[in-house]
């Protein structure tokens, strides 16, 4: 593995004809970091990953890997390895052929190839499958082989484009753990594309949430989950989704307050990013598990209860506005009950009602 | 369920009858006639293998069969190679794709008669390319294969490849388009040169398309008749005769039905001998 494998994306722009896909995008990925690119379909995640790999030309900007400007290098010369959503295995070659073909064409010594394939196969527990064809493998096994093909390249940077999207839920969870373990063991830099926020939260050191040609937020899973930078991130990350109440800020500057019909929430203890403007229209966001009930002074009617195994989700109505609360499974609550809620200030997320930016 | 099964069989009965009578009946009759001494009209006097023996001794028949094998081998391989190159070219340069596709496929929309005539004029030393070359000053240019007995079969190959390469291109292009783009990306990351990717990764994925194209080309090899008639009428001498033309000529012009049916039966047996194992192999391949 090369000594340095940090990745630096500097002002990258990419368009397909008149359609701008990435706009002045900057991103620094540290050595051995696990960075997840998270965003809805079509937001340009694959385009960015392909640009890092050298499979898509950039219109402007630079890409540096390991301290070298690789903007115009061929993919094979960038010290990267890649895993694809559709596995992209060579269908007429055996597993061994798939894993070794690139090395053979590059003229690596036979013994060296043999050793690297063996080590990768052991690491992924696919030694038994080496002489099989891809068509004789299950989806999970195929993706292991695809990861194995990336492993033998001995690259410093791994690029993974939705590697688990074609698998069923159980296999996905299994391989997710495997990929995480692999990352810890190899110490390689990994850039992982997904539209699945659970994958992002469980795998990432840092998450870059993308939408509309831009990175909306770059931060640790905790940052993204607990302190979303805007309403889009707040909505996109987390399941069950964050609830929102539309209202405005109170007029008393000494005791900031969120006000909506039937709701008054004191904001003392909320970490304002900038000085709030009295009377400003805001949206209050709070995750269902952060809503407290019992001694609060916000009256809410239970409209529906959704059991989720370990706990349950109650859909509430406060005046005209909906909100949900996550409760322990044994809580006795039913449709028609009235709860008294408390929304703790340090768990709140306030967004400007017009721009959607965090306050 | 059961009754609808029977209904379906009743509905298919005319088709089955026609198939039995027309195909099997006439085939059987042809084979039977080939063992008679029929000349202009069918006769029922059996003469055993006599027609077959005279076929083997017939120089024109021997030339026809040799031509068929030479033509078949060259035509199929050249059409596959050229068709694949065209398909790969179009697949890589998407611009003006539909124009190229139409241009390459256009010859296939003509009959072999038209193709044959066109190439006959083009290759005629006193009319076509050679005359043109001389007219613009290349007086050293010389291309008379059309009238050379030892080369004429290659001009047939040339015309037929021009005719059929577009079809091969269309079939293989469809195959290429079916290949997942991520395979190409994976190959690039693996550092495979483009030509290597084609040979080691893409071609093996196109075996189905190649089999289809080969089958279609092979049937036109067996049917080869009109091209020879239009381009050379079998000449010079008998140098560009082909089996189908041998059969037609003996059936209708030379009034030797016995010899013609013997030739036809020989072709049939040859084709079955080649096709049966192939079909069997295909069927087995599908089942596993
Ligand atoms: N080859 C292409 N030609 C034209 N538009 C493309 C091409 N590839 C992607 N796009 C467009 O660019 C946008 C981003 O695509 P992509 O990076 O694949 O998104 P993601 O991987 O986030 O789902 C999409 O709107 C898509 O339609
Ligand atoms: Mg994608």
The number of distinct β-strands of chain B equals 0
| Helix vs. strand class of chain B | mainly alpha
CATH class descriptor name of chain B: Mainly Alpha
Largest beta sheet: strand ordering of chain A: 6-7-8-3-9-10
Task: Summarize the biggest pleated sheet of chain B.
Answer: none
Helix/strand-derived class of chain A? alpha+beta
Describe what you observe in this structure.
Chain A is an alpha+beta fold and about 350 residues long. The longest helix of chain A is centred in the middle third of the chain and has 18 residues. Chain A is elongated, with a radius of gyration of 24 Å. The mean pLDDT of chain A is about 95. Chain B has a single domain, classed as MetI-like fold, CATH 1.10.3720. Chain B contains 13 helices and no strands. The mean pLDDT of chain B is about 90. Bound molecules: adenosine-5'-diphosphate and magnesium ion.
Name some characteristics of this structure:
heterodimer; A: 359 residues; alpha+beta; six-stranded mixed sheet; five-stranded antiparallel sheet; 8 helices; 19 strands; 24% helix; elongated; B: 288 residues; mainly alpha; MetI-like fold; 13 helices; flat; binds adenosine-5'-diphosphate; binds magnesium ion
Secondary-structure map:
The complex is a heterodimer of chains A (359) and B (288).
Chain A: E1 7-16, E2 19-29, E3 34-38, H1 45-53, E4 60-65, E5 68-69, E6 80-83, H2 95-105, H3 110-124, H4 139-151, E7 157-161, H5 169-186, E8 189-194, H6 197-203, E9 206-211, E10 214-219, H7 221-226, H8 231-236, E11 243-249, E12 257-260, E13 263-266, E14 281-286, E15 292-307, E16 311-318, E17 321-328, E18 338-342, E19 349-352
Parallel strand pairs in A: 3-8, 3-9, 6-7, 7-8
Antiparallel strand pairs in A: 1-2, 1-4, 4-5, 9-10, 11-12, 11-14, 12-13, 14-19, 15-16, 15-18, 16-17
Chain B: H1 2-33, H2 50-56, H3 59-92, H4 97-105, H5 112-123, H6 129-135, H7 152-177, H8 181-189, H9 194-205, H10 207-222, H11 226-231, H12 243-253, H13 257-287
The structure holds adenosine-5'-diphosphate and magnesium ion.
Adenosine-5'-diphosphate binds at residues 16, 19, 21, 39, 41-47 of chain A.
């Amino acid at each position: 593995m090369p000594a340095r494998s940090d990745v630096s994306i500097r002002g990258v722009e990419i368009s397909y004809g008149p359609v701008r896909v990435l706009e002045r995008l900057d991103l620094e990925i540290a050595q051995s970091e696990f960075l997840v690119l998270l965003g809805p379909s079509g937001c340009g995640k694959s385009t960015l990953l392909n640009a890092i790999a050298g499979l898509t030309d950039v219109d402007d900007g630079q890409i540096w890997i390991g301290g070298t400007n690789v903007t115009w290098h061929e993919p094979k010369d960038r010290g990267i390895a890649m895993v694809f959503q559709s596995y992209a295995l060579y269908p007429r070659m055996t597993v061994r052929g798939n894993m070794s073909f690139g090395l053979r064409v590059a003229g690596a010594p036979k013994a060296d190839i043999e050793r690297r394939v063996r080590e990768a196969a052991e690491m992924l527990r696919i030694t038994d499958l080496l002489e099989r064809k891809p068509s004789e493998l299950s989806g999970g096994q195929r993706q292991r082989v695809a990861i194995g093909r990336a492993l033998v390249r001995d690259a410093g940077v791994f690029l993974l484009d939705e590697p688990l999207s074609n698998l069923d839920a159980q296999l996905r969870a299994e391989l997710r753990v495997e990929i995480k373990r692999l990352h810890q063991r190899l110490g390689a830099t990994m850039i992982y594309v997904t539209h699945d926020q659970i994958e992002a939260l469980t795998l990432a050191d840092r998450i870059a949430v993308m939408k509309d040609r831009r990175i909306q937020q770059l931060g640790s899973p905790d940052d993204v989950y607990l302190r979303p930078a805007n309403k889009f991130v707040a909505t996109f990350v987390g399941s069950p989704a964050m609830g929102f109440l539309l209202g405005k800020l109170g007029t008393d500057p000494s005791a900031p307050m969120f006000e909506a019909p039937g709701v008054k929430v004191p904001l003392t203890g909320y970490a304002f990013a900038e000085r709030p403007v009295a009377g400003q229209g805001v949206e209050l966001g709070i995750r269902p598990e952060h809503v407290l009930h019992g001694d609060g002074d916000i009256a809410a009617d239970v409209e529906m209860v959704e059991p989720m195994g370990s706990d349950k989700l109650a859909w509430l109505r406060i005046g005209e506005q909906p909100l949900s609360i996550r409760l322990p499974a044994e809580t006795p609550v039913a449709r028609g009950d009235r709860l008294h809620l408390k929304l703790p200030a340090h768990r709140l997320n306030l967004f400007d009602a017009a721009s959607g930016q965090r306050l | 369920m059961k009754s609808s099964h029977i209904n379906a069989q009743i509905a298919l009965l005319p088709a089955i009858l026609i198939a039995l009578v027309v195909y099997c009946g006439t085939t059987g009759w042809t084979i039977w006639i080939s063992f008679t001494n029929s000349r202009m009209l069918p006769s029922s006097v059996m003469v055993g293998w006599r027609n077959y023996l005279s076929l083997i001794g017939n120089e024109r028949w021997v030339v026809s069969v040799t031509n068929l094998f030479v033509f078949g081998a060259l035509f199929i391989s050249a059409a596959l190679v050229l068709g694949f190159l065209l398909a790969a070219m179009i697949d890589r340069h998407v611009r003006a794709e539909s124009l190229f596709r139409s241009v390459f496929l256009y010859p296939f929309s003509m009959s072999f008669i038209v193709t044959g005539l066109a190439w006959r004029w083009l290759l005629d030393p006193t009319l076509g390319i050679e005359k043109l070359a001389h007219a613009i000053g290349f007086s050293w240019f010389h291309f008379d294969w059309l009238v050379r007995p030892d080369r004429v079969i290659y001009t047939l190959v040339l015309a037929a490849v021009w005719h059929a390469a577009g079809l091969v291109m269309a079939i293989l292009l469809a195959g290429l388009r079916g290949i997942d783009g991520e395979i190409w990306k994976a190959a690039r990351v693996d550092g495979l040169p483009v030509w290597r990717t084609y040979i080691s990764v893409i071609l093996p994925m196109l075996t189905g398309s190649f089999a289809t194209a080969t089958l279609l080309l092979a049937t036109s090899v067996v049917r080869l008749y009109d091209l020879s008639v239009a381009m050379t009428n079998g000449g010079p001498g008998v140098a560009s005769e082909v089996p189908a033309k041998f059969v037609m000529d003996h059936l209708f012009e030379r009034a030797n039905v016995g010899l013609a049916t013997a030739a036809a039966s020989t072709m049939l047996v040859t084709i079955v001998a080649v096709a049966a194992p192939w079909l069997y192999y295909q069927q087995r391949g599908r089942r596993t």
